[in-house]
Design a protein that fits this description.
With 161 residues, the protein is mainly alpha-helical. The protein has a domain of 109 residues. The chain contains six helices and four strands. The strands form two sheets. The chain has a two-stranded antiparallel sheet. The chain has a two-stranded antiparallel ribbon with strand order 3-4.
Amino acid sequence: MRAARPGSKPGRKPVTKPDSDGPSMAGAADDPGYPGKNLGLPEAGLGSVAGMARRVGAIFIDWLLCTLIVVVAINPPQAEVAYWTLLIFAAQDYIFTAMTGFTIGKLVLRIRVVRLDGSRIGPGWALVRTVLLLTVVPPLIVDKDLRGLHDRAANTAVIRI
């Protein structure tokens, strides 16, 4: 039986993996692995991180559906269609994400928003995520796990289902 390292608790795994020369100092850039590896998600298949094509496709589907709803149900002057579409898009994203983790576009493309701790997204985190999503820039700044600033702020990830 090996003795525990000083300062470590029995039964706990160290955060860094020691190699033959001591603790690894290699950064994520040297061995990026795959998106979701650091989150404990599988590399492919169900539960893996959804790719950017699916995410953008889901937003595109949601935007088109919201535009259709605005044009058919509200029928505002053409100059106001974009504003109404943004309002309907924000509402549907917030409500559906808070309740289910899905939007219509996400459901069609088989992806879902989940909290990394396994809890419900709920209204508070859905609001944070939706507001940041609407500012456009945070979703474009992604980390190696393909999580935008809006996902990191809400402790969420978009996975394949």
